[in-house]
Amino acid sequence: MELKEMVQFIQTAMPQLTIQQFEEKMTGWDNDVILINNQWVFRFPKTEQVAECVKIETHLLHDFRKQTSLNLKVPQPTLLYGSKQQMMCSCYDLPVSLLSILQESTGLRSDVHPNGA
Question: How far apart are CA 93 and CA 98, in angstroms?
Fold first, then answer.
């Protein structure tokens, strides 16, 4: 799936989300990843097999979050489906503390790909 198609899917699936900026991370082996507004992570599996693994991962993370008594920030992914009930991507929001760590370790900037550029 091309970047333009992924952004269009996100806008359609989450119309309440105003996309001000995005950064593509399309170098993953199993997923194409887009970071929206330096807050939302969207992972698009590259194959059906990977999509099944993402579904399992999502269920495990939900279960883990319910069962842990530790004060951990566990991502709470949501699966987004396209036509024909095909899982298209998972998405979750980044805690501010994790975003700071990512910015320091990767040089992630907040001014990447303004919407409409």
Answer: 10
Task: Give me the pLDDT at residue 19, please.
Answer: 93
pTM, rounded to two decimals = 0.76
Of residues 115, 84, 102, the one with CA closest to residue 10: 115
CB neighbour burial string for 63-98, b if at least 16 within 10 angstroms, e if fewer: eeeeeeeeeeeebebeebeeeeeebbbbbbbbeeee
CA of residue 114 relative to chain centroid, distance: 18
DSSP of 57-116: HHHHHHHHHHH--S-------EEEE-GGG-EEEEEEEPPHHHHHHHHHHH---S-SSBTT
What confidence tens digit (pLDDT) does each residue in 31-57 have?
A: 999 999 988 999 999 999 999 999 999
**Tokens matching residue 115:** 């919407």
Q: What is the mean pLDDT of residues 72-82?
A: 85
For the four alpha carbons of 99, 104, 108 and 111, in that order, the dihedral sign comes to positive
